[in-house]
Fold:
Amino acid sequence: MGKVVGIDLGTTNSLVAYVRDGVPVVIRDESGDGLVPSIVSVGTDGTIFVGREAQRRLLTAPASTVYSVKRFMGRGIEDVHEDASLLSFAVGGEPGGVVRIGIAGREFTPPEISAFVLRELKRRAEDHFREQGEFDFEVDRAVITVPAYFNDAQRTATRDAGRLAGLEVLRIINEPTAASLAYGLDKRNRGTVAVYDLGGGTFDISILKVEDGVFQVLATNGDTHLGGDDIDRLLTESVLADIAGPAARNPAYENQEDVGRVPRSGPAVLIQAIRKAVIQAKRDLSEADETEIRVESTGLPAGYSRRITRADFERMIMPLVERTLGPCRQALADAGLEPKDIDEAVLVGGSTRIPLVRRVVHELFERPPHSDLNPDEVVALGAAIQADILISGRREMLLLDVTPLSLGIETMGGVMSKIIMRNSTIPASGREMFTSFADNQTAVDVHVLQGERELASDCRSLARFRLRGIPPMPAGMPRIEVRFQIDANGILSVGARELRTSIEQTIEVKPSYGLTDQEVERMLIESFEHAEADFEARLLIEARNEAETVILATEKALRRPDLDRIAAESLEPGERERIEDALADAKRAIGSDDREKIQMKTETLNQATRHLAEVVMNRSVREALAGKNVNDV
Amino acid sequence: MTPDPIPLRSTSTLECRNCGAGAPVDEHFCPQCNRILALGRYGDFFTFFGLPRRLGLDPQDLERRFRDLSRKFHPDYFYNAPPAERLASLERSSYLNDAYRTLRNPAARIEHLLAVEGLPPAASDGGSVKVPPTLLEEVFALNEELDEIRELRESGGDEAQLRARLEQARAPIARKREEHERRIGELSDRYDSQAGSPAAERKTTLEALREQLLEQKYIANLIATIEREVATVG
Structure:
């Protein structure tokens, strides 16, 4: 058996954590960074870039670079038009089906894109375990978190992504609940806790009762389309409006790779440059009262910059922040509580760093909210704890979560008939009786829905299926019991039985916004076929990193104030020029996707600088030793 | 699609799928090998919690039992178990959650008792269309008042005044509700005290409870109607 990890698969960033000696820890890269940007980019030759590398490509190859894909998980093209207008990559798909993302001449579904991020996290964890000297370093199982307000299709899409990444998904758990586990570990207290989770793309509120190690969610609510991305979009649109005209219509920004079926309101490179600038400004304003939105490449000679105060910013985003209040009040009402009944309010998600958000939460719950744990990391830590509970079988802590949305079926007249109510503790099951309307009818169609609205057409369509094999009987005689089972992941399964004959029915569920098992299988096979290209991408990144290291060291050496003296005293004629040429070559090579060229030029630069490095080293040693007695050394 | 009476499986004993030993139908774990048992029947939530079939119960005790049973059944702890046990854990946890949700809520608890005692349910949500005789007077007065208020609103009547009238209309209905709650409390106590009494006496009490429950639902709908009006006034 391999290793087990907890994964926070975020809209903006993703993290992987595990429990070491009873303590959850985030796995970091060499520079101590735990965050992997949830960004995937495809090179012209098909290589896949993930994380920071892909993030860099947002500015150079925006049409081939996908971000915030979590917003498309388990959704249809009709859901995402609003976002699509400002995206720099192409999205499409049949109405009523899964969203398709077209990049670099290939088409991907959101679970496939997420799988690339998961594979990167898996690899990061495996590298870590290998470095720790673990013999069995393979990571094969994971707990993955989702927003509490994710519906069945979104959860299933996340589980599919895990499978595509070669992970057995032990459990899908809700982000706010995971966060409460991480908090609960420290405190071991009891009481009623409100977890306010505003991330990059989603908002959740969960009200929990913690007692005796049992974390019982009383109610949850949220908005799977509300988060930092919306703030960024608001700011981006306002900057675009400022500079509309000259730059936005600059033909230089027309995109070659544009195969989009959704109209876009601006050229991709410009939008990405603006997006980068406004995100920086947004972050600045969590600390400073005033900052500048500075866009480097607007196509205008002087670029673009605009001062923005925190008050301006707060005025702009107030409507968005206020949208979180309705769900909070609904969750309180569903839990049968008043704000004063909340013992603690906890902040989760990067967007809760915004002072306005903190103020609003403080006012709502009438107490200052906690943010003792890093709001970016706390969810991954909780996922790691849950993974540990699952494999160890330890029973000190238990999460009892709820289903965020009511589950039902469409009945006569297009009305939604609820079978499992929202905020029911999961696992939960419900049963419904069906019968036939015509003599000898052998099949009945069932339409499964999720949502709170009265009309089926206003609820989310989860699946349609046909009950077959009903024994021929007069109309109204068959008694078919359909069982709906929501498991601990919040994912639905359906079973049916004719009670008079005890005949089990065959059910083929066609997910409305999901992939069929066959599609997942096919993608798995394809991902093996692409594995070589992905491996190549990995090598390319490593080669590039290596080149960067050598380039930086060389530049540093060439900047030495005493370089002229060194050259005169110790270097051969022309040696310095050879180094400078090799440096220029290496810098050119690093911009290409040609790994062998990068490696060759790096090696050439390495050779060219070897003598200089020795000379510099000797000088340093001599200087260090100068004036010192042998005994001091 | 009508709500179906709770089907009781006719079995009175269970067979452990692990060791084959027999177990009483309401046991959670095999007395022989201690493995989790498949759910024996859909039936009595009281028995499932190890409680007597009484309407008065201590919510804190119920919550404690819920937590204890959750710790025993939850799928988290059966991750490595054979498929049959995993399924049993899923079934039993789902059932436990349903049972807890039902018994925690006093009205749902009475409904459940009616069902396990073999009485017809006190109508599904929405309540019966027929006005309960004891409420005729109030319903008549309320409907007249609501009509007037609606007319006033449409002709641009003063908001504060409209709200005041709605409050006034609510008062007698709210009093009725309190009356019913008290009555339901009394009947529940009576039922609990009749544990040793003849079945016919208990049944009379249950019938009375069922009537009260029907009326209470009707009242809840009336109050919801008033709330909707209040919301329209703004």
Observations:
- Chain B has seven helices and two strands.
- The first strand of chain B starts at residue 13 and ends at 15.
- Confidence is low (pLDDT under 50) at residues 1-10 of chain B.
